[in-house]
Amino acid sequence: MRTVAVILAVLIATGFAAKFQSALPTAAPGKMLPMNILSEIASRIAADGPLDDIFDLFNSLESQIRNEQVQHDELYARQQVECSGERSFREKEIADATNAINLAT
Fold first, then answer.
1. String of b and e for 73-87 (b: at least 16 CB within 10 Å)?
2. Are 67 and 59 in contact (CB under 8 A)?
3. Which candidate, 67, 39, 35, places its Cα nearest to that of 54?
4. Cα(4)–Cα(27) distance, rounded to whole angstroms?
5. pLDDT in tens, the chain (105 residues)
6. Packing angle, helices 34-46 and 51-104, rounded to 10
7. Looking at residue 19, what is its pLDDT?
8. What does the alpha-carbon distance between residue 32 and residue 40 come to, in Å, rounded to a whole number?
9. 3-state secondary structure 34-47
10. Tell me, what's the pLDDT at 13?
């Protein structure tokens, strides 16, 4: 009986671990994660590489962040337009339902 309980507990824990692992953020292709950036800088410093390479790395990271921000801003603007349209539609639906109730009573 204990063996079955332990196996069941392990299966449940494995399922939760798999679900949690899939919920973790992963890097999109071409996107640098902070740990990757730090290891890249450390390897360039350890190799006594020129500081220009490190500055170029920071500049590319900055441009990547700025591009992502532009994309997020565009998405936000589109979603705001969609939300305002949905809100006005729902308010009209509520007004129509209120008028129907008032006419019925």
1. eeeeeeeeeeeeeee
2. no
3. 39
4. 39
5. 666 665 755 556 666 555 555 555 555 556 667 778 788 888 888 888 788 888 888 888 889 999 999 999 999 999 999 999 999 999 999 999 999 999 998
6. 170
7. 58
8. 10
9. HHHHHHHHHHHHHC
10. 61
The answer for residues whose C-beta is within 8 angstroms of residue 6's C-beta and 6 or more apart is: none
Question: Dihedral sign, CA of 13, 15, 20, 25?
Answer: positive
Name the one residue in this structure whose structure tokens are 């603007």.
77
Helix/strand/coil percent split, the chain, to 5: 85, 0, 15
Q: How many separate helices (H) and strands (E) can be counted in the chain?
A: 3, 0
Q: What pLDDT was estimated at residue 91?
A: 96
Cut 0.90: pTM above it? no
